[in-house]
Design goal:
about 180 residues; mainly alpha
C-alpha cells in the first residue's frame, strides 16, 4: 500500500495556501464590488440632486417673474393662487438648499447657506383670521408679499450664481465640456 509520510509543509502547500488565497480573493472582490456600488449610488444621488435643484431654480425664477408681474399689474383674481404657489416653491427651494450642505461642493454649500438665510427672512404671507381694522385680509397679504418680492429681487443675483455653480457641477459630474 501507499504509506507515504505527509509532512506539514505539504499540508500547508496543498490545502491551506489555496484555501487562504481563495478567501483573500473573495474578500477583495466583495470589498471592491461594495465600494463601486457605494460610489455609483453616491453618483446617482448627487446627479439627482443637481437635476432637481436646477429644475427647481428654473421653476422658481419663472414663477417669481409671473408672480411679480401679476402683483405689479394688480391682478387680484390670480393673487391668492400665486400666493400659495410661492409659499410651496419657497419651501421646496429651502429643502434643496439644505441638501447642498451634504451633496454640493464648498462653493455651492456656501451659496446655499447665504440664500437660505435670506429666504428665511422672507415672511410667509398668511392672512390673519382677524385683520386689522383698516386693512382687509387681501391687503395685509399684499403688503407681506410686496416685502417678500423686494427681498427676492435682491436675491436674484445669488440665485443665478448658485444655478451657474450647479450647472458647472452637473457638467463636471457627467464629464461634459464646460460652457463658457
Amino acid at each position: 500500500m501507499f504509506t507515504e509520510q505527509v509532512t506539514l509543509l505539504q499540508v500547508v502547500t496543498y490545502l491551506l495556501l489555496p484555501a487562504l488565497s481563495a478567501l483573500l480573493g473573495a474578500w477583495a472582490g466583495a470589498r471592491t464590488t461594495f465600494g463601486r456600488f457605494k460610489s455609483e449610488r453616491t453618483f446617482d444621488r448627487v446627479l439627482d440632486w443637481l437635476e432637481r435643484s436646477i429644475r427647481g431654480l428654473a421653476t422658481y425664477e419663472a414663477a417669481f417673474k409671473e408672480f411679480s408681474d401679476d402683483v405689479n399689474l394688480g391682478n387680484s383674481h390670480t393673487f391668492l393662487r400665486h400666493l400659495e404657489k410661492s409659499i410651496s416653491l419657497n419651501r421646496d427651494l429651502i429643502a434643496s438648499l439644505y441638501e447642498a450642505d451634504v451633496l454640493g461642493n464648498k462653493r455651492a454649500s456656501a451659496l446655499a447657506q447665504t440664500i437660505r438665510k435670506r429666504l428665511q427672512d422672507i415672511p410667509e404671507p398668511e392672512p390673519s383670521i382677524e385683520p386689522s381694522p383698516n386693512m382687509t385680509i387681501e391687503m395685509e397679504a399684499r403688503v407681506t408679499v410686496s416685502k417678500a418680492i423686494t427681498l427676492l429681487k435682491g436675491l436674484q443675483s445669488e440665485l443665478q450664481e448658485y444655478r451657474n455653480v450647479l450647472e458647472c457641477d452637473l457638467r463636471l459630474h457627467l464629464n461634459l465640456p464646460s460652457e463658457k
